[in-house]
Specification:
The protein is mostly helical. Helices cover about 60% and strands about 0% of the residues. It has one domain. The protein is built from 5 helices and no strands.
Length: about 120
């Protein structure tokens, strides 16, 4: 399983995107939106599961809304399986490991936000 730090190697990587609407209307943080976009592009390019690649490519390209993909009977099993994998991974962690993951993720996001403020706050 990938860690959050593997999703974006360069914070400036997606600054040139022309799409301004967030991937999800509940995400009001441009950094989290950028991570989601990168994750979808990564899945569209690198997943060994053809259905996952197709879904990620459609969502990343704006052909399907993420909400609609999540509710779709076509992708329901895909989302359920991935949720199960994440839950099993998280449940397999000790409290100490979970705290370390949290602190690592928080530091990573703070670092990205700091990089953005150094560049005029532009994601």
């Amino acid at each position: 399983m990938r860690t959050h730090c593997q999703y974006i190697s360069d914070p400036a990587e997606t600054r040139s995107e022309t799409r301004v609407e967030p991937m999800l209307d509940t995400i009001d943080d441009p950094i989290l939106d950028r991570i989601l976009r990168h994750s979808l592009r990564d899945q569209a390019s690198n997943s060994t599961d053809p259905l996952r690649r197709e879904m990620a490519a459609d969502v990343a390209a704006g052909r399907v809304l993420l909400y609609d993909a999540a509710r779709s009977s076509v992708y329901a099993e895909l989302f359920a399986q991935r949720a199960k994998e994440v839950i099993e991974w998280w449940d397999g962690r000790s409290d100490h490991e979970r705290q370390e993951e949290y602190l690592s993720a928080r530091g990573y996001l703070d670092g990205l936000r700091g990089s953005d403020s150094d560049n005029g706050g532009q994601p």
